[in-house]
Amino acid sequence: MSRLAVALPDPTVRQRTAADPAASVWVSASAGSGKTKVLTDRVLSLLLEGTPPQHILCLTFTRAAAAEMAIRVNRTLSRWATCADDKLRTALEALTGMAPDESRMTQARRLFARVLDVPGGLKIQTIHAFCESLLGRFPVEAGLAPHFEVIDERSAAEMLESAHGSVLVRAGREPALRAALDIVTRHVDELRFAELMATLSADRHRLERFLRDSGGLAAALAAVRARLRLGADESDATIAAAAAREGAFDRSALQQAAE
What we know:
The chain is mainly alpha-helical and about 260 residues long. The protein is about 65% helix and about 5% strand. It has 13 helices and two strands, in the order ααβαααβαααααααα. It has helices at about 10-20, 35-50, 65-80, 85-95, 100-115, 125-135, 155-170, 175-185, 190-200, 205-215, 215-225, 235-245, 250-259, and strands at about 55-60, 125. The model has no long low-confidence stretch (mean pLDDT about 85).
């Protein structure tokens, strides 16, 4: 049997294509295949093409990825600023696929100083950090208090625990809240109660919007009953009694299953 030669695509060429700032691309690749390198090369290519460093915004999901990209870009630019001409020429040709002229090499050597002059450096950050910066610049438009601070997870958990305790204390003084807690505690134990409260707290904005759009708690309860097709006087007890009424279920089949 003859062995067929398969021509595999050159990964360097494909990465160079994806890093070309003149193209809008979508890259999908597995871990360790060079996605961070492509993004780094794209930022370097933008800088080489004359894009002002302060006009570049690179967003990632994690702080680790943002730090890794910033380190790679700064490390490359510092190397370009100090390496010998032959090494710089080789690096630029590998990045762009074209042999650089003297003006391009001079420009490459100056990029490190240009990036250092940008207040705060290159904008390579997480999506959360970018959104936080936008809210910080336009707090009034976002409906926030100026000079707000983002709470950390530990403080949020402590405040949530304190709020739970306050609700339990209030239940001793407010009959309606005590009746609601009586219903909840019939269905969940102590551990699941904390999980339930955490879930409700995470969705509190949706609950608030539902209550507001419904016109209050009573109207919201009426909307839920209408959605479930329940009468005004129906409860879990009346529903269970109706389901257990003679003729409402297949007694013989249930008896056989029980036996």
